[in-house]
Design goal:
Number of strands of chain B: 2
Number of domains of chain B: 1
Oligomer: heterotrimer
Mean pLDDT of chain B: 86
Distance between the termini of chain B: 21 Å
Strand order of the largest sheet of chain C: 2-1-3-4-5-11
Low-confidence stretches of chain C: 1-63
CATH architecture of chain B: Orthogonal Bundle
CATH superfamily of the largest domain in chain C: Response regulator
Largest interface: B-C, 49 and 44 residues
Number of domains of chain C: 2
Radius of gyration of chain C: 20 Å
Strand order of the largest sheet of chain B: 1-2
Number of helices of chain C: 15
CATH topology of the largest domain in chain C: Rossmann fold
Radius of gyration of chain B: 22 Å
Shape of chain B: globular
Largest sheet of chain C: 6 strands, parallel
Chain lengths: 522, 385, 414
Amino acid sequence: MTDETGPTLAPALEMRGITKRYPGVIANDGISLQVRPGEIHALLGENGAGKTTLMNVLYGLATPDEGEILLDGQPVAISGPADAIARGINMVHQHFMLVPVLSVAENILLGDETMANRIFLDRREARRRIVELGRRFGFEIDPDAKVGSLSVGWQQRVEILKALYRKARILVLDEPTAVLTPQETEEIFGVLRRLAGEGHSIVFISHKLYEVLEIADRITVIRRGRVVGERLPSATDEDDLAELMVGREVQLTVDRGVSHPAGPVLQIRGLEARDDRGQAAVRGVDLEVRAGEIFGIAGVAGNGQDELVEAIVGLRRPSAGTVSLAGQDVTGRSPRKMNEAGVAYVPADRHRFGLILSFPLADNLVLTSYYRKPYARGIVRDPKAILRDATTTIERYDIRTPAATVRASTLSGGNQQKAVVAREFDRDLELLVLDQPTRGLDVGSIEFIHRQVIAKRDAGTAVLLVSAELDEVLEMSDRIGVMFGGRIVAVLDGRTADKNEVGLLMATGGAERVAALAATSA
Amino acid sequence: MTKRSSLAPNRPGPSKVARAWEILAVPVVVTLLSLLVGAVVILGSELIVTGRKFDPFLWFTAYAALVQGAFGGTDAIVSTLVYTTPLVFGGLAVAFGFKAGLFNIGAQGQFLVGALGAVIVGVALADAPAPIAIVAATMAGIIAGGLWGFIPGFLKAVSGAHEVVSTIMLNYVAVQLLAALVSGPLKVPKSPSPVTYDVGNAAYPIVIGGTGHIGIILAIVAAGFVWWLLFRTTWGFEIRSVGANPDAARYAGMRPKLLTIATMTFSGGLAGLAGTSVLLGVTHSMTSAFGTTVGFDSIAVALLARSNPIGVVAAALLFGSMRAGAGLMQINAGIPVELVDVLQATILLFLVASPVLRRVLRLRGVQAGIAETAATNALGTEPTD
Amino acid sequence: MRIRTRGFGVLAGFALIVSACSSSATAVPIATAAPTTAPTTAASTAPAATASAAPSSAATPAPSFAQMPNLKIGVVTDIGTLDDKGYNEFSFKGAQDGAIAIGVTDPVPSIVPKDASEYAADIQQFVSQKYDVIVTVGFNLTAATVSAAHANPKIRFVGVDQSPECITPAGANDAAFACKGVPATALPNYTSLYFAEDQAGYLAGIVAAYADKGAPTPTGVIGAIGGTTLCAPCVRYIQGYGLGAKSVNPAIVVKSAYVTHDFSNAAFNDPAGGKAFAQTFIQANKPDVLFQVAGKTGNGVIEAACAANIYGIGVDVDQWLSLGAPANACIITSAEKHVESAVAQAIESIAGGTLAAGDILFNAKNDGISAADFHDKASLFGPAVTTALQTALAAMQAGTLQTCPTTGCGVYAP
């Protein structure tokens, strides 16, 4: 798009031969990167490839061992985030740095260096500027709204506004779409294009190939700390990028083959559950998952999926309705009882729910079976048996780690999730419940996990897959249920479901529901 | 996206010396720093307090006396061990709670109630055969302390009442309970001041020197037992899991509430054993002045030991030796016992600042992330591996 | 001995026993005191054996004491601090005075325990260092001191406030308080010094009743705050105080309260807590005079009294002197027990080889107690006060004045 402006102008940002070593690891190995004014430059790489380190160098959080950074052709030494911001470099983190109880305006003013010289905040002026900035980039924002009450997509816009308010020229977005719905993603892309149109330079960090192809003007791919290629979107495709990124040929969409569903395993009738604040979150769900099929649940986060899953696996007591497993009523059973009944569960947030990061990998692999033989006799644990089995599991599931005794926190995200999967999959299962099983993972790990899920299905396990990534649900599911407002509003055939149709159902609850609402209000 | 990703080449494990340094660096440096602060305090107070001849080496005299009083000869060493014993039990109690993510500030109250249990049963069995009296009085102390730990554990599990608040409250209740019982039903009727009868045969036999009672051995056994419990049993695994990540523990089918109750009860039992060891091993009867700072010092011991049961023994030995040496320090150098408080307090302060220290000492683990350090080190729940 | 001699000043005009104002001259002949069997209830009602052994040495001012410059003397105080401006501090000073009097040039060290379980170990420190005389302060150390004395017959032990002595016939600590042992023979190396606090309190009560008016307060309220109900000497002070005040004015209202009912820090080591406690007390009872019997906690009581513009009465030592200005602004007198001279005399007697074993009572008969000088408050009082004090003191010396309830002297009754 902006290619013609390129060669004549000095790059807004140039990183030359950046090398950053950590004990035992070369995180960045002579990385060079040029970002031109008005360019959306995608930085593509697997988790652990060195993207974050590179951006930490840019943000002054890490000092490079070699190499230099140039802004508008001038070499600079960036001493820290405050310095970076002062030089017009701003970062929008994957996890937003916002205070939920404060208003949009207050969040934007928070920590603004330009305020340091003033005693009083000119709130009216600030609010006016915020509204104006928002309009310029295509959205109406209420500066007095509490951030906590905004949707994730809007929170992200607040982050971007915050950067713009501080007169950012170079905007770094770290995995910005990971938490967004397809519609929100489209909207944010619109904002980014406008920003670029006004001359801002954008570094877009991602590992989602189709997104990168859609938004970027130029794509730099890094692998194992090195730049392995630079591409223009027009001259590449997903397969090419994936191969660059992973270093081998990758099958992006798993061929899920044909399912051979048998009798129902999981049957849910009229299930209702409340969330942690006591509000009704699941409002009467009927659901059936059969042996040997993958039932996907699509929905915008916060429509009761989490509560539904927790009610199924025993973590949340349903307020009404029944859950039965292979014909037996298991409503309200404890997680351990469910586990012993052959239910495996991969929770959404592996850091919070799936692993104990400070524990050795081996201990994490027995987190649900530590009390059973051969890992324990009575109450006495058998470390040898635990280590022995851990070693074989690590091999079988290709968990890349120096040893079974290292802390889980030292593993990359993909390998952490492989550990959870290994733990949960490595036995005969009746039902497999997956909540966002591939969130934040690189393509290699996603491919691996998807294969494992399909293998389980083909072995006759009933699989319930919940994901906010619509593509994942569409790719994997034999049947798709769309969840909206605590209900399953539609069940579609996985082979024929259309992405736009599902997206619309996710966003509105569907025509029937709209009609039903209209009828009740009439 | 950590720096030490799976893509990193396999690094050879650090040498044994390096590993030992990793573990010991902070406690050792913290202790040395606090001794330095103590020396400055001594010099400073010499300068401020008039009427005393300035002695530039008074700090040396003081520390020499401290060391001599703690380790100079059999009596001194035995005295150190006697002081160390309740700190081991108390330190284990607090460390055990830390492992489960619980901050048992109530070790003090559990200590008192444990001693109360021991004195009640000990006096009742004062004329019974020694083995029976000793075992029964000890069990009574453990159970009484355990009960005092059970209450906050139960309250937390049932109503979410924070254990820090409820244990502090129970400390006061314990003090009053002790005073009421010792000046009331437990008081020797003819005594002018509130004091109980002697525990007679329930007193711990002396096994080392003139005052070294069997509680010393019991303390070492307890440290080993707690280590085994934490690291070699499923129960310990559950406790550590709940402490490190209660959500993940719950998702894995463990029952955090039940574990909270069990942990607080067990922790209380250990603190009760600390009180028991002082009562049956040292005082043999209880006055209404009974009460030590062991319960509070135990928190410092557990922090210094980073909640490791074996570390608790070492940290307790350090604190115990300071207490034992304080007497001779007062005799030889005229330095008030408060210097020991200064040393203990500065040790705690430096421990709080240990992330900074680790950075200065260029220890690994700094990279593990400041957030993690702040969240876990503050409570001493050092990850294990 | 400056403080003590000044303290005597107020009594000098009428005191029978004061012959000269030097420490040596006023030394009470405790050395010759016959061992007594301990009184079991009221200190002052105990047969004061010391009375019979009246001033043999006091009559002839001793020029010097037996010199024992190599005597090693150590002090173990009760939990707390050496700067309590009260009896820990002055017991220690007494040991120092005694040491100087007998020619000891080495400093007298002290150990302050951190808690009750340390008493035995702290005494043992001095035993291990081969000390000759060990002074222990406070009744909480009784059992530990008796045990140490029993185990170390060659070391001389002096206890302050540890009466009545109660030992087994073998000289060991008697946990059951059967008290069958005769101290002089069963434990000849241990002497307990104790005081008739109720007599001191009685004198203070007289002063309190006269305060402000120079005449008995017609319908006034006076107050007293004790450290803990478990401290028998504290209770005796306050019991005597009430009786003394009522002896002047039977209609006077005496309010008393105790900071705690245990031996926590609040009892004797918490000035801030004492101040807060006293403020509440003053608001509730509106006393004209407030008597503190709570060590350092009590120093906060005095602070509150001064802040509330009422009079304060100090305890144990002349606190007008020990606290100094401005903290002493409202102190009209102090109920004194002469721990400093008592300990000093005990040490001097040890050097002379004449210190008897057993309990030695210090009361009005042997200058063991007094009411302190009015100092700058003298103008408040007319001659009637002095007369009343003289009369009371004379009656105490004659053994005819009841200064403590016959039932339960030193026993707290709510």
